[in-house]
Amino acid sequence: MSILHKTIVLLLFLSIFAISPSYAETWTAKVIGIKDGDTIAVLHEGKEETIRLNGIDCPEKKQAYGNRAKEVTSELVFKKIVNIEPLTKDRYGRTVANVFTEDGKNVNHEIVKQGYAWWYRKYAPKDIELAELEEEAKKAKRGLWQDENPI
């Protein structure tokens, strides 16, 4: 490989990290709003930022358990400091992230564990813990799993 090719490869490699440095680090923020069970608003660097919880999908507000899912998320994080582990941006410009309470509890997992969210297989296909938590909630008929075919 020529020096020119090596230089191009190196520049491409470095540019990947330069494009999205915010996705390399976890940061803290105060939760200022709960949009629904799987979407929160935080205050980050003086601005409101919308966070979509990674790997989960809660019922919408007008669906069965939608309001309860929002309440569960609120009980876990509203007006609290959380740690945000950003992964990507979705097509709506929201930050997709894993969210942790100050004591280290994974909020995404906790909502599934309580039965108010599904494991979003399409976007987190390798998250074995979410799969296990969903199965446990289903067997225990917690939350939305009280219904025969929750939607």
Textual characterization of the structure:
The protein has 151 residues and is α+β, with helices and mostly antiparallel strands. It is built from four helices and seven strands, in the order αββββαββαβα. The protein has helices at 3-19, 66-77, 107-113, 128-140, and strands at 27-36, 39-44, 47-53, 56-57, 81-89, 95-101, 118-119. The protein has a five-stranded mixed barrel. Strands 4-7 form a two-stranded antiparallel ribbon. α3 (107-113) packs parallel to α4. Residues 4-22 have low confidence and may be disordered.
Distance between the termini: 55 Å
User: How are strands sequenced across the largest beta sheet?
Assistant: 1-2-3-6-5
Report the radius of gyration as a whole number of Å.
Answer: 18 Å
**Helix and strand run:** HEEEEHEEHEH
Count of DSSP helices?
A: 4
**Major sheet summary line:** 5 strands, mixed, barrel
Morphology? globular
Give the helices and strands, then pairings:
Layout: H1 3-19, E1 27-36, E2 39-44, E3 47-53, E4 56-57, H2 66-77, E5 81-89, E6 95-101, H3 107-113, E7 118-119, H4 128-140
Parallel strand pairs: 3-6
Antiparallel strand pairs: 1-2, 1-5, 2-3, 4-7, 5-6
Keywords:
151 residues, alpha+beta, 5-stranded mixed β-barrel, two-stranded antiparallel ribbon, 4 helices, 28% strand
Describe the structure concisely for a colleague:
With about 150 residues, the chain is an alpha+beta fold. It is about 30% helix and about 30% strand.
